[in-house]
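Human: Not sure, check this?
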Amino acid sequence: MLEANPGSGRGIVRSTDRNTLAVDLISRILNEAPVSITYVGRDLIYKECNQEGARSMGLTRERVIGRHLHQVVPERPELWRTVEKVIGTGRSVHSLPVQVTWPFRPTDGPLHYLMSCIADKDAAGHVLGAVVVRLDVTDLVRTGERLERQTELLERLKERKDRFISIASHELKNPITTIKGYAQLLEKYLGKDKDPKLHQFAQNISLQVDKISLLINDLLDVSKIEQGKLELRKHTFDITKLIRRIATEMQKNSPRHHIRFGVRKRHEVYADEDRIGQVLINLISNAIKYSPKGGDIIVGLDDEDRALTVSVKDMGIGINKSDIPRLFSRFFRSTRSAESRISGSGLGLFICKQIIRKHGGLIWVKTKPHKGSTFYFSLPKETG
């Protein structure tokens, strides 16, 4: 060929050199690849094997090439069958999960591979052999199994925790109710005139019992939510009337704040009145707590096309932007609440979110540090 094309001989030589270099480079890459690559002929004799392929079977390349498949991997019919089927049918298989225990690595236990077996055909479509690629995914599989066991353990611990919270909360309810009753009797019996100091003590007992009762109810609600047992008792009611009643009651216990609600028009909504009242109480209570210097708390109600939106705005310490994504998470306490030593269980907003979501609504917040926050929730306009 060189004599027939004297003018282009150098180009051919250079092209041949480049092809040789490319073949050598590909050969080195395949040989040193961290993946098992072997070639089995139609006669099931190994024609080629890279270093990882030999290493993974506990052999050298010299002890693999030229030997029969059944000799190299004895008692491994799961591998034989796949290779024999591909060579017999000409249909390749890809990413087949294979589990193997090698005789030379008995203490390792079963090893896991993803195996691809690609049929090698000539121009006429006749099968010449098969390229077998095995990717060792043992570490991934075992890590997955460990994570699965840990997840199962966490689920069992969570179930026990939920069961404990539920039982403990129920068991605490009765004695707390009794203490509350005695505290109220003491308040009446002592009276402000008889012994003001003891009367104040009784009031303090009653107040602390109320806080414990609120925490118990929150824990019971969380338990119901996590078990999917939070039920709604929906009926049609005037939400304007509900907001006004709650705002009036809470104003009595917070003389330093001015709770404003200027809506007079009747707005009916189909929802669980007690649960919506619970959300309102929680949001207004938070507005009071996070406004330690007092000031206005503005409750709003907007009638939109498909939903009613309630808002509670305060002029307090606000919330850091970084806290907002986790604000409605269970047991989350905002940075500013910790800094300002504001008490709370971190359950209220989590419960509010679940109640509103259960109604098919949304809950969100807009806030600026040192300038206050506005919490919103929307309820779809449904009919009973």
User: Anything to note?
Assistant: The first strand starts at residue 36 and ends at 41. Residues 1-13 have pLDDT under 50 and may be disordered. The two ends are 92 Å apart (CA to CA). The longest helix spans residues 138-194.
